Every structure is written in structure tokens, then in C-alpha cells.
Amino acid sequence: MSRIVRCGLIQASNVKSPAEASLPEVRQAMVDKHLKMIADAGARGVRILCLQELFYGPYFAAEQDPRWYAFTERVPEGPTVKLMQEQARRYELAMVVPVYEEEATGVYYNTAAVIDADGAYLGKYRKNHIPHCLPAFWEKFYFKPGNLGYPVFKTRYATIGVYICYDRHFPEGGRALGLNGAEIVFVPSATTSGHSDNLWRIEQTSMAIANGYFVGTNNRVGREAPWNFGEFYGSSYFCDPYGQILVQGSRDQDELVVADLDLELIQKVRAHWQFYRDRRPETYADIARDVL
């Protein structure tokens, strides 16, 4: 018997440059764009929808400027999560909503709130792995490493996990999400051509194979002024537990990428590839050390 869940990924270009508009205007323009795309998802029968990393503005870690601290909000009390709870109720879809979270003054995280189809706030994931090594990816200026582990969330339609962008380079968290019961792992991202293209189709399909679950990963599109440091190449996709890409978005267009995921395939794949049965956790203790 099939257990099919229609899922969606939004990939979108930034609307207004912070060099030409105030930060509240920059934010509102992106929120307005996403409200239209969320309405489209509702009309197309999407049941679980993932927005892109830091969806309500440009990828501001292209510079190190404390003005972006004004983009933070509390989770779930902040206005963006509250608005998305309303959208979830309206369209009866569960949502992954990546925002810039303020836990306390000066304590900020790259966070994804998870909302159920009735608008209930289920919890949040905080990005665990924070890059600060490539030109224009200065995230340690803005974010503390996550401290909530690798939770999963039981939505009305499926049990889901979240991994955010740079996290995908670290397979340990992907395995933890599988062990915790994730059926679908969403990976909202912001990555550019020139350094990650060859990894984009490999790492996340490999994570799906190794852990026997579906992966949905999205990436913004276009160049973002005033920095213009690189081109976000979209290519958002869903893959199944065999690592097969089911649908993939364009490299340069705003798009809602939709796929019907048959969750019954998870049981079939795990009966075939017994990776969980054949694990040897008692031999893995050394990987938790800094140096072997």
C-alpha cells in the first residue's frame, strides 16, 4: 500500500538590495514574494513545504555588519513564525521556516522552525555546523553553533528532520536524524557556483542512501546586490532512499519544486540495504574526538 505525501521546496531570488532599500523593506519584499508561492503550494496540494535558508532576505553573511542583527526574531514568538502558522492553517500544510533567531540579546542562531498543518509550532532545529572559511560566507560573525541536537518532528503527514546548508558536509548529523526516526530530511541552503556544484548532487543523495530516507534540498537563485560575490544556482531537488533524484528545479528561476513521495519505499529500501542492522556503534567512539 502506498503512503504518498506531496512535498514542496521553494527557491527564490532576493527582491530588494539592502543598498537601495531599508532592511524592513528588504524583508517585507521577500515575505510578500513567499506568500504568493506558499499560496501556489496550497493550490497544488502540497502537504509539507520547505522554505530556503534565511528566506526573508538576502544571504547577508556575504558581509560582516552588525546591522543584520536587526533581522533576528524570537522563535516561535516572532512575527515571521506567527505569520507562517497562519499560512499553515490556511492551506493545511506543514512547513519548515528558516529564520534568524534571537535567543537573548547577542545570542543568535541560524534556525528552522517547524510548523504542523494545523498551525501548531512543533519545535526548531538550530544549524550545528557554522562555516567561516570561504569568501563571503562569514557565518560565525552572526550565528552560534546549534545546541538542540538533531530532533525530528512528527507532522500530520510524516516524521521530518532538518539539516541546514553547511551541515550537509557532515554525515554524522544525517545519520542521527535517521536514527531518530526521520522519514524525510529537508536541507534548506544558500550556496553558489564555483565551490559546491560538484557536491550538490552527491552529498545529499548519498545521505539519503546511507540512511534510507527521502531528502528535499533547496537553494536560492540569482546574484545578490550589492555583494554579487557569486551566483546562487537553484537546482532544488527531492531524492528517494535509493538516491534517485525525483524532480529538480532550474538553476536560475523562482520556482516551487513539487514531488509526490511514497513513504512506503523506506521500508522496502531498508529491508534490502540493512545499514541500520549492520551498524557497529561500539566501534565508532573515536569519531567523536577531535584527533584520532
Sum up the structure in keywords.
292 residues; alpha/beta; Nitrilase/N-carbamoyl-D-aminoacid amidohydrolase; 5 helices
Please give a structural write-up.
The protein contains five helices and 14 strands. By secondary structure, it is of the alpha/beta class. It has a single domain, classed as Nitrilase/N-carbamoyl-D-aminoacid amidohydrolase. The strands form three sheets. The chain has a six-stranded mixed beta sheet with strand order 5-4-3-2-1-14. Strands 6-7-8-9-12-13 form a six-stranded mixed beta sheet, covered by helices on one side. Helix 3 links the parallel strand 7 and strand 8. It is globular and about 55 Å long. The mean pLDDT is 96.
Helix count equals 5
Query: Class, according to the CATH hierarchy?
Result: Alpha Beta
Radius of gyration: 18 Å
| Class inferred from helices and paired strands | alpha/beta
Low-confidence stretches: none
Reconstruct the topology from this structure.
Layout: E1 4-11, H1 23-43, E2 48-50, H2 79-91, E3 94-104, E4 107-115, E5 121-126, E6 152-154, E7 159-162, H3 171-179, E8 184-189, H4 197-211, E9 214-219, E10 221-222, E11 232-233, E12 237-239, E13 245-248, E14 255-262, H5 264-272
Parallel strand pairs: 1-2, 2-3, 7-8, 8-9
Antiparallel strand pairs: 1-14, 3-4, 4-5, 6-7, 9-12, 10-11, 12-13
Helix pairs in contact: 1-2
Offer a quick outline of the entry:
The chain has 5 helices and 14 strands. It has a single domain (4-288), classed as 4-Layer Sandwich (Nitrilase/N-carbamoyl-D-aminoacid amidohydrolase). With 292 residues, it is an alpha/beta fold.
